[in-house]
Amino acid sequence: MDLPDSGMLNFFNKVLIALSDLTPDGSPCSIESLIDQCGIVSFGGQRAEYSSVIDHCHHCGLLQLKNKHVRMSTLGQKFLDANRDRYFEITEAQKQLIVERILFKGAWHSRARELFLLFSFNQTKSKYELSTIDNILTKANLATVHFLKSLGVIEELEYIIQVETKYSELVYVLTADSKTITEQQLEKIWMENRKLGAQAENAVVLFEQERLKKLGKHAQASLVRRISTANAAAGYDIESFDGSSDDIFPNRFIEVKATHGDEIRFYWSQNEMSVAKKKGESYWIYMMTKFREDRPNECIPIMIRDPEESIKKNNYLTIEAHSFLIREIAVVELSAYSMEEIKWYQLA
What we know:
Helices cover 41% and strands 20% of the residues. By secondary structure, the protein is an alpha+beta fold.
């Protein structure tokens, strides 16, 4: 199936909102009922249009279809949750989810890959680029360019199309089996990730200090420290406390992972895995998804306790031997916790 017109993405919201209104408990309903409900929600949408939108939503995994009945998928619910105010116009959070879950890794990845194979890595700018003078784009590729521009993945500057820096690693992974990139070029991409990680570590220190203060452990809060700058081989980034006693010896060892996206996906070194195995339940990974450098305190950490054991037992994550790449293979089940205004998620 071809990529939808960028304007159709707004209709994704209309279909999902209509389905949520029609079956708030998540049960299936007939496609006919959903189309009728779409007409009500959108004040007279045409029947044939919504049939096409439903097909696209099914193709990219937002809806499940069976025997002429439709229901919301887990990814569809996540897409709807990224539109808290239920606007018909697609939100920035929804664009991010589409890019990471559907464009680079889902139903539309082959179209994205076909285009990005034409790009080359500009070492000076640390960006993937495509010259529209040196490359004649097909009609299909031009449609993909227009679609990616609407999602904010690429920008067009005169005769050069550039990939936004935050998507460089995704482009690399998407095209890595067909294109080569030098170690120095890849290091520049990872440098951006390390910069992001350092900012996330500072945010976690502040989070831990606040968490311990809420528990009345002010002395322990003052002792939380980031050790990654002093000992890069420690296998974790931050020493903290679980807050169950007044002991001044650290008993929570935190490895911080960060990403601009909302997917649980991170590299875990052999050393980190070895340290995690030794420390067991005292070792935690704090995953900072949707992390923004200009709004670090808005990020809610996802905590994974004893990851060496819990990741292997979890059906929603997989470990790939890229030394080691942890990534979602299904939407991860998370438990929400809060302590007054402090919030976090934990791997179920």
